[in-house]
Design brief:
The protein is mainly alpha-helical. It has helices at residues 31-42, 54-58, 87-92, 95-106, 124-137, 162-165, 170-184, and strands at 76-80, 113-117, 141-142. The two termini are 24 Å apart.
């Protein structure tokens, strides 16, 4: 689960026409579809569900978790959010407790693997809170917040709209996927 980097519906007014991870050139180049490819190479029977929970990021303190009922009880949860969380609101509004409620709501079973991924953009406070949460819970943690420092990992120059262009390029998507796959591949029996 994530935000526009996971999936964004077409929005022509900002120059985005895809229905996949924003700024990837095609669906098969976003990190989710690259990850699905690797998972299915290891185990074709795995069912992968994915979606954007950007609304939770923006309104974590009032978001109705029941909106996520169709995504509950996975064997593995990969949670990659932070980009739309306001740093100030996160530190003053006890973001970590709402993040924990989100994880427990979606994946309440103890045996479910919970993989925590920070944000692509340098949201210092939110990314720190997410990392601290993963450490406290002893959940696998994947850091990707350094990737946006290299402009070749962004779609700058490919899109006029600055918000779209700030998203991961195909290269950035591959880098995100590789880091997540490295953290989860042993769960699928692939070394």
């Amino acid at each position: 689960l994530g935000n526009s980097i996971v999936r964004h519906m077409p929005k022509p007014d900002i120059g985005w026409y895809g229905d996949w991870g924003m700024a990837a050139s095609v669906k098969d180049s976003d990190f989710v579809h690259l990850l699905i490819r690797d998972i299915h190479q290891a185990d074709p029977s795995v069912v992968v569900k994915f979606g954007s929970i950007a609304d939770f990021e923006r309104d974590f303190d009032t978001y109705p978790l029941s909106n996520l009922d169709s995504l509950r009880n996975p064997d593995m949860l990969i949670l990659k959010i932070s980009e739309n969380v306001d740093d100030k609101k996160a530190t003053e509004g006890n973001f970590s407790s709402y993040y924990d409620k989100l994880v427990k709501y979606i994946a309440p079973k103890e045996k479910a693997v919970k993989v925590i991924v920070d944000g692509f953009w340098a949201k210092e406070k939110v990314n720190r809170l997410i990392k601290e949460y993963a450490s406290k819970k002893k959940y696998p943690f994947v850091s990707i917040n350094d990737l946006s420092k290299d402009s070749t990992n962004t779609a700058i120059g490919r899109f006029e709209h600055k918000g779209v262009a700030a998203h991961p390029s195909d290269k950035g998507m591959r880098m995100i996927e590789q880091r997540i796959w490295y953290a989860i591949k042993d769960y699928f029996g692939k070394k």
